[in-house]
């Protein structure tokens, strides 16, 4: 069960953090190539079209072939180390905060912690908390994924030192405000619909055919 439930055996905040970290780690390994493509497309000023001679990337398949030819297979996992720190840290903080927030709602308010609206608000706040905690790592991950050849930052330590010396400590929190504005409804609705679909499954799937959660 995701979220505090006074009528059920709930996971501890440590267990929630461990589960969130593990899911984040596995997910990042699988989606990293798509994340690299997304960042390359976002940073390309020219239109993504084969009819535009100045555009380096025209589409997904062409971009995959181009990156593989110029930079090799490992290019699709560029920035993977900071990205893993991001995913593990975000997953741990988000689920730990969500468990703590829903438990707090139960103890200090009259709201039902299993209510979808509670999950919407707590899920959004939990994601905002996680975003603030891992924003520096997200900035590093983006820098690594965006760089082509030759590399600007050869390793993580060099990137941190160079960015801090040239741009100051605030550079690690660039884009925090729009990220928070976007992540609250995104994560909030994710927990909201998870809660609704979980309740809906009770009516769709007969109780005798269910196996655990």
UniProtKB/TrEMBL annotation:
Pfam families: Mito_carr. InterPro entries: MCP (IPR002067), MCP_dom_sf (IPR023395), MCP_transmembrane (IPR018108). Its main location: membrane. Keywords: Membrane, Repeat, Transmembrane, Transport. GO terms for cellular component: membrane. GO terms for biological process: transmembrane transport. It is a multi-pass membrane protein. The keyword Cytoplasm does not apply. Belongs to the mitochondrial carrier (TC 2.A.29) family. This is TPC protein. It comes from Erythrocercus mccallii.
């Amino acid at each position: 069960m995701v979220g505090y439930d006074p009528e059920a055996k709930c996971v501890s905040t440590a267990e929630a953090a461990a589960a969130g970290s593990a899911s984040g780690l596995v997910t990042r390994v699988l989606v990293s190539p798509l994340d690299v493509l997304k960042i390359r497309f976002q940073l390309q000023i020219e239109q993504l079209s084969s009819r535009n001679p100045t555009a380096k990337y025209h589409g997904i398949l062409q971009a995959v072939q181009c990156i593989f030819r110029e930079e090799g297979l490992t290019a699709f996992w560029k920035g993977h180390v900071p990205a893993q720190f991001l995913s593990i840290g975000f997953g741990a903080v988000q689920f730990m905060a969500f468990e703590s927030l829903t438990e707090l709602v139960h103890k200090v308010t009259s709201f039902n912690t299993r209510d979808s609206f509670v999950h919407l608000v707590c899920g959004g706040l939990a994601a905002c908390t996680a975003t603030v905690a891992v924003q520096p790592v997200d900035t590093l991950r983006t820098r690594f994924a965006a760089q082509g050849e030759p590399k600007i930052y050869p390793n993580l330590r060099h990137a941190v030192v160079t960015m801090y010396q040239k741009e100051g400590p605030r550079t690690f929190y660039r884009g925090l405000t729009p990220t928070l504005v976007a992540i609250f409804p995104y994560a909030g609705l994710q927990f909201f619909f998870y809660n609704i679909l979980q309740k809906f499954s009770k009516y769709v799937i007969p109780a005798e055919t269910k196996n655990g959660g």
